[in-house]
Amino acid sequence: MTSPQTAIDISTDGHVHTRLCRHATGEMEEYVLAGIDRGLDKMIFLEHLEAGINYFDRTWLTEEDFEEYFREGMRLQILYREQIEVGLGVEVGYNRQGKDELKKKIGAYPWERVGISCHFLPIGDTGQHINLLSRQQQNIDIARQAGVDQLLSCYFDTLHEAVAELPGTVLCHLDAALRHVPGISFTKEHLQQIDDLLTTVKEKGMAIEINTSGFTMRGEPFPARKFLAMAIGHDIPLVAGSDAHRPEDVGRFFHNLRDYITSAVCP
Asked: Which residue intervals define the domain PHP in the entry (predicted)?
């Protein structure tokens, strides 16, 4: 098993968003400059791709947005090649009903990284979706009405299917669903689902992202220590991502990651 002290590269930020996703601010070049200022060797943009989602607020890129994303990204790769390596990736939000469209769009570009996540789940037979990672009160209310345990179970099943079905390279947001709902907990059934999911992640040769946005939200990154320990137990590679939604977020809290990994292995 890889030593926890050397299990993660903190010179690369592998999860960066921009204003193209409509819920972040800043141009791509501002994020690149922030990465240079942080002393990073590499950063990977990981913009949102969704398909078949019925939600009142679009939080993902259109086809035209992705065309702009690649044009600008390739320009920045050339312009700053002597200072930082710039990668162009995608964060794919899995939706069973949009699976074929997602596969088609993934195949349309030469992504350096394909992050797998699940932000939206259908709300019964309403034809609408709930945003599981949203802090908006209406999503929290819907989650409580639908049943938190049931939604979490569906979330882990959906992630598992996504990992099995899509050509992913990194699993994002392992335990981030309903993160803004107070007092959520994970049952024994959830823990078994997570273990089964991690088994498939390992079989597919994927990595697990440690998302440092959690330091701001809850004092520790995603995933939490017990889930990180499970991933390490499966000998799954770890990658660092800030989930930056502002240029100043790039590389945030990376200096804490090695100690955090050690604390998960040796509590």
From this structure: 13-213
In this structure, are residues 137 and 183 in contact, taking their beta carbons and an 8 Å threshold?
A: no
Q: Using alpha carbons, select from 121, 181, 173, 172 the residue that is nearest to residue 148.
A: 181
User: What is the rounded CA–CA span in Å between residue 197 and residue 190?
Assistant: 10
User: What secondary structure letter does DSSP report for 224?
Assistant: P
Stated pTM of the model:
0.95
pLDDT value for 178: 96
**What CATH number matches the domain at 4-265, 3.20.20.140, 3.40.50.300, 3.40.640.10, 3.40.50.10190?**
3.20.20.140
Q: Is the dihedral of CA 109, 132, 250, 241 positive or negative?
A: negative
State the Cα–Cα distance between residues 165 and 155, nearest whole angstrom: 15
Contacts of 200 (CB under 8 A, 6+ apart): 160, 163, 164
Q: What is the pLDDT of residues 189-232, one digit of tens each?
A: 999 999 999 999 999 999 999 999 999 999 999 999 999 999 99
E-assigned strand segments in the chain: 12-16, 42-49, 85-93, 114-117, 120-122, 129-131, 170-171, 207-211, 238-241
Residue 190: HSE in the Cβ half-sphere, 13 Å Cα cutoff: 17
Model confidence at 236: pLDDT above 80: yes
Q: Is residue 162 packed enough to be buried (19+ CB in 10 Å), middle (13-18) or exposed (0-12)? A: buried
